[in-house]
Amino acid sequence: MSRRIEIIALILGDALATAAALAVVVGGEPAWNWLPVLAGTRVVSGGLVVVAWLLLFAFSGLYAERYARGRLDELGTLAKVVVFGCLALLFGLVVDQLEARELRVAIGGYALAQFAAVGAVRLAVRGVQRALVVRGYGRHRAVVVGWSDRVETLYHDLARYPAANIEIVGAVRLTAPATVPVLAEASLADDAPVHISERFPGGDALPAGAIEVTAAGAPRAAVAELPGLIDRLRVQDVIIALGTEDHDTLDEVLRVCDGKPVTLKLVPDFYAAVGGMARTEHTYGLPLIEVLPEPMPAWERRTKRIVDAVVSALVLVVGAPLWLAIAGLVRFTSPGPAIYRQTRVGRHGRPFTMLKFRTMVDDAERHTGPVWAEHGDARITRVGRWLRKLRLDEIPQLWNVLLGQMSLVGPRPERPYFVEQLVDRIPLYSRRHRVQPGVTGLAQVKWRYDADLDDVRQKLKYDLFYIETMSLGLDAKILFRTIRTALAGEGQ
C-alpha cells in the first residue's frame, strides 16, 4: 500500500467512523442531542464535528507514518486523543445542555463509540496494509552497513519475516582483505579499491537494481559510498550491523548520513555507544535501535509550525509600514537593492533563497569571495550597523518562515560554500540539517557571529544541544532572549 493510499484510506475511514459514532449516540438518544442547529439542520454541525476530529487526529500524529509501531501503540494514542476530544466537546457544547447524570452517560457513551468505531476502522486498514506488505508491496527500502558475517545474518533474519516491512536493496559490507569477493571493481574512492557485488554469500540474490559495496580493510572507503547508494536506491532506512569496537566506523556512518532523509537503526550491540540518542523498537522479534529519532512529538511539531506561521504573518502585516520605511532607508542611503538574497542550506541539505535587509555595500564579496563577517567589518553600511544591532535585518526572513523553509527558532542556515568545508572538518556538523533552520537560535543568543572555525565548533555545541532537547518551552525562552537582545541593541 503506497503512502498516499494509506493516508486516503485512514482519512476516509476515520470520517465515516466518526460520523457513524455521532449518529448512533446523538441521533439514537434524542435527550442527548446536543448538536446545535446550523442552516436549519444538525447535519452541518455534525459535519463540522467530523472535520474537527480529523484535524485533531492529524495534529496528534495519527496520520504520520507508523513504521515498525504496533497496533496496540496506535490504539493507545487514539484513546488519549479521543479522551481529549470528548473533554473539548464537553466544555464547548455539552456542559450547559444536560443534567450532570445525563452528561456523564452521554459523553462516556460517545467516547466509547468514537474509540470503538475509529479503532475498528484503523485495525482493518492496518490488517490490509500488513497483508500487502507480506506480498511485497509498500516495504521500506533499506541498506545494511556492517561486517560481512553480520550483514548476511541480518539479511536472512529479515527475509524470514516479510511482515517486518523491510526490504534490503543494498549493502555496504566491511570485509577483511582476504575475503573480498571481487565481481566488479570501480574507482569510487582514492584510498582503497571499492568493489560492487550483486549477490550475498550463499547465492541469495539481491532484488533487481540492488548494489553491494565492499572495500577490503578500508571501512571509510566503503562508507564514503553510502550517500550515493541512499540517493540511487531511494533508501528509507540504514541498518547498521557493526561490532562494539567499531566506534570510528559508526561515527563515520552517522556523519555521512546526517542531513539525509533516512532513519538510522542499529543492531543492538552498539546501544552503549549512542547513549540517550536512541529509541529501541522490535521488528517481529528482531530488536533494532533507532538512532537520532524525531526530536519532537507530532503535536509539538505541528504547534511549532502553527506558531511560526501565525507570528510571522502578524509581524509582517502589522509592521508593514515600518518594514517599507526600512527598505526605503536602505535603498536610498547605499547603492543596491534593499533586500539581499543569498542561497542557504536548509533541512535535509536542501538549498533555499534566504532574504535579509541589506546591511553591507552591494556585492560586498566581489573581490574576496565568500567570507564570514568580522567585528567592525568595513563593508557594513551605517544603516546596516543599526539594523544588525536591533536584529531588524532578519525581518524579511519571516517570509521564508511563512513558506516553510525556516522556523522562528532553529540552527542558523549556512551557505553551501561553507557547509561543504565544515562537513569535512567538523564531526557531526550535518546533524544541524535534521531540523528546520531558524531566524534565531540557541547558538545565536549564547554566542557571537562566526569569525573562525573555533566559533563554528562552539556554536555547533549549542545547536546539537537544541536539537536533542528542542521543545516549545525552549523555543519560547530563545525568542524572549532574542527580543531582549534586540531591544537592548546588543546584536552584532
Keywords:
492 residues, alpha/beta, Rossmann fold, 3 domains, 9-stranded mixed sheet, two-stranded antiparallel sheet, 14% strand, flat
Brief summary:
This protein folds into 3 domains: 3-134, no CATH class; 140-291, 3-Layer(aba) Sandwich (Rossmann fold), CATH 3.40.50; 298-488, no CATH class. It is built from 17 helices and 13 strands. The chain has helices spanning 3-28, 42-59, 71-94, 100-134, 148-159, 219-223, 226-232, 247-257, 271-274, 298-318, 320-333, 382-389, 397-402, 416-425, 442-446, 453-469, 472-488; strands at residues 140-147, 166-175, 185-186, 194-197, 211-216, 237-241, 263-266, 278-283, 286-291, 339-345, 351-357, 407-409, 438-440.
Topology record:
Elements: H1 3-28, H2 42-59, H3 71-94, H4 100-134, E1 140-147, H5 148-159, E2 166-175, E3 185-186, E4 194-197, E5 211-216, H6 219-223, H7 226-232, E6 237-241, H8 247-257, E7 263-266, H9 271-274, E8 278-283, E9 286-291, H10 298-318, H11 320-333, E10 339-345, E11 351-357, H12 382-389, H13 397-402, E12 407-409, H14 416-425, E13 438-440, H15 442-446, H16 453-469, H17 472-488
Parallel strand pairs: 1-2, 1-6, 2-5, 6-7, 12-13
Antiparallel strand pairs: 3-4, 4-5, 7-9, 8-9, 10-11
Helix pairs in contact: 1-2, 1-4, 3-4
